[in-house]
C-alpha cells in the first residue's frame, strides 16, 4: 500500500491517492472528519484555523462507503483559497507577480528550498513546505485506522509536554475524554500550566514546541522484519514521524533515557503462561524488538521544535537585495503540538496498516481476516 499527496497551502485543495487498500473495507466518513477536526484544534493555533473547516471528499475508489480495491482519491478543500486566487492562480492569467516573497524565514524551507529549486519567489517553496499538507496526511491515516479497526488495533496520539511543562504520560489509550483537555494531554493537572506557557509565549511574540507520544494497542507480534534495514518497523515509524514538519527527534519505548541505564534496567524479561502465551511485565522496548512487533503496545514519542514564525521576528537576509531585515509577521500558530500529535497518530496508523498488509495481505478484507485469524490460531498452538 502506498500514497502520494499533492496540494499547496493556499491552493484550491489538498489531495491524496491511496493505492493498495483491500476491497470490502467500510469507510466511515465521519471518523475521517472527526480526526481532521482534532488536527485543527488544540490550544495555541492561529488565525488560519478559524478560516478552514477540513472535511474529506472521496473522488474515486468507493461505492456505497465500501472500498473497491482501486485507488482511493481523497480531497480536502482550502477555504482560504478564495483569498489567494490571484496570488496562487495555476494559469498564467491573474498571477500577481508584484507580491513576490524575497524574505526567507529562519526555521523554514524558504532559503534552502529557493536555492535548490532556483526560485526568486519564496512562495514557490513555502506553499508546499507548509504543514497545511498534514491535513491530507491525517485523512490518509484515518483511512488506515479504518483498516486497523477491523483487526482490533487502535492508535492514539497524546501530548506529553508543551515547552518546558511536562504532563504525566499514560502508557494506555484513553477514550474521547482525552479531547476535553485542550492539549490532548492525559494529565489534566498539567493543563493550566500548559495554557499559561502558551499564553506567555504569545504575549512575548514567541512560540513553543513540545513532545507527543503515539500508542498502538492490539498489535500482534510479527509486524515488520529484522532481515533488511528498510523493513525494520522501528526505522519506518521513526521516518514517518520525522517527516512531519517541525519534528526533530523520535524515541521508542525508553528511548534516549535507556542510554544512561544499565542493561538490567532496560530489557524486558520474557514470561509465559498458557492463557497469555509469551508476554513481558515491562515494556521498555516500546513494543518493538529487532524491528519486529513483540505483541506489547507500541509506544513512540516525537519532539517538536517551537513554531519558527515568530511575532517578534529573527534576523534574516533578503534574497534579492542581500540586505538584512526583520520581517513583520501577520499570523501563525504559537504552539501546534496537539495538532502534531494527531498528525503523528495518523502517520503511525499508516505505517502499521502497511505492515499489517505486508503480513496478512489480501485483495479483499475477508481474505486478510482469514489470514489474520489463522495466524492467531497458529500463535496459540505454538
Ligand atoms: C500542525 C502543524 C502546524 C504548524 N503551524 C505552523 C505555523 O503556523 N507557523 C510556522 O511558522 N510553522 C508551523 N509549523 C512548522 C513548520 O511547518 C515547519 O517548522 C517548517 O515547515 C520547517 O520544517 P522543519 O521544521 O521540519 O525543518 C507547523 C507544523 C505542524 C506540524
Ligand atoms: C494551514 C495549516 O497550518 C499552517 C502551517 C504553517 C506552516 O508554515 O507550516 C503556517 C500557517 O499557515 P498560514 O500561513 O496560512 O497561516 C498555519 O496555519 C494547517 O495546519 O492546516
TrEMBL record:
Organism, by scientific name, is: Thermanaerosceptrum fracticalcis
- Positions bound to NADP(+): 39, 45
Q: Name one GO molecular function term.
A: FMN binding
Indicate which residues the UniProt annotation says bind FMN.
128-130, 290, 305-309, 331
- Provide the assembly information: Homotetramer.
**Any binding details for the cofactor?**
Reduced FMN (FMNH(2)).
**Tagged with keyword Flavoprotein:** yes
Metabolic or biological pathway, per its Swiss-Prot or TrEMBL entry: Metabolic intermediate biosynthesis; chorismate biosynthesis; chorismate from D-erythrose 4-phosphate and phosphoenolpyruvate: step 7/7
* Record PROSITE patterns: CHORISMATE_SYNTHASE_1, CHORISMATE_SYNTHASE_2, CHORISMATE_SYNTHASE_3
Q: What is this protein called?
A: Chorismate synthase
Quote the cellular component terms of the Gene Ontology held in the record: cytosol
Q: Which Gene3D superfamilies match?
A: Chorismate synthase AroC
Task: Name the Enzyme Commission number(s) assigned to this protein.
Answer: 4.2.3.5
Q: Which cofactor does it need?
A: FMNH2
Amino acid at each position: 500500500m502506498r500514497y502520494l499527496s499533492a496540494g499547496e497551502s493556499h491552493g484550491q485543495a489538498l489531495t491524496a491517492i491511496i493505492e493498495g487498500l483491500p476491497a470490502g473495507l467500510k469507510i466511515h466518513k465521519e471518523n475521517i472528519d472527526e480526526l481532521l477536526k482534532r488536527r485543527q484544534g488544540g490550544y495555541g493555533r492561529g488565525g488560519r484555523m478559524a478560516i478552514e473547516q477540513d472535511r474529506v471528499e472521496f473522488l474515486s475508489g468507493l461505492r456505497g462507503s465500501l472500498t473497491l480495491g482501486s485507488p482511493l482519491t481523497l480531497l480536502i478543500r482550502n477555504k482560504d483559497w478564495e483569498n489567494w486566487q490571484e496570488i496562487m492562480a495555476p494559469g498564467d492569467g491573474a498571477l500577481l507577480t508584484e507580491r513576490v516573497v524575497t524574505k526567507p524565514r529562519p526555521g523554514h524551507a524558504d532559503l534552502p528550498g529557493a536555492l535548490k529549486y532556483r526560485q526568486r519567489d519564496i512562495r514557490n517553496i513555502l506553499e508546499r513546505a507548509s504543514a497545511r499538507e498534514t491535513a491530507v496526511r491525517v485523512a490518509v491515516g484515518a483511512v488506515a485506522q479504518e483498516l486497523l479497526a477491523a483487526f482490533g488495533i487502535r492508535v492514539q496520539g497524546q501530548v506529553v509536554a508543551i515547552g518546558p511543562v511536562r504532563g504525566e504520560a499514560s502508557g494506555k489509550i484513553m477514550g474521547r475524554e482525552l479531547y476535553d483537555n485542550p492539549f490532548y494531554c492525559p494529565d489534566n493537572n498539567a493543563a493550566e500550566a500548559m495554557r499559561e506557557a502558551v499564553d506567555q509565549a504569545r504575549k512575548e511574540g514567541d512560540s513553543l514546541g513540545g513532545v507527543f507520544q503515539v500508542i498502538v494497542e492490539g498489535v500482534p507480534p510479527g509486524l515488520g522484519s529484522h532481515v533488511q534495514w528498510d523493513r525494520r518497523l522501528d526505522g519506518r515509524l521513526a521516518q514517518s514521524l520525522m517527516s512531519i514538519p517541525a519534528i526533530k527527534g523520535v524515541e521508542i519505548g525508553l528511548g534516549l533515557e535507556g542510554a544512561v541505564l544499565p542493561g538490567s534496567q532496560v530489557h524486558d524479561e520474557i514470561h509465559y503462561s498458557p492463557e497469555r502465551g509469551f508476554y513481558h511485565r515491562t515494556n521498555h522496548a516500546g513494543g518493538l524488538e529487532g524491528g519486529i512487533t513483540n505483541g506489547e503496545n507500541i509506544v513512540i514519542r516525537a519532539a517538536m521544535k517551537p513554531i519558527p514564525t515568530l511575532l517578534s521576528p529573527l534576523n534574516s537576509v533578503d534574497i534579492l537585495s542581500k540586505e538584512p531585515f526583520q520581517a513583520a509577521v501577520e499570523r501563525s500558530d504559537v504552539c501546534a503540538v496537539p495538532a502534531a500529535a494527531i498528525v503523528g497518530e495518523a502517520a503511525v496508523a499508516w505505517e502499521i496498516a502497511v505492515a499489517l498488509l505486508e503480513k496478512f495481505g489480501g485483495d479483499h478484507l475477508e481474505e486478510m481476516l482469514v489470514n489474520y485469524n489463522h495466524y492467531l490460531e497458529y500463535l496459540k498452538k505454538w
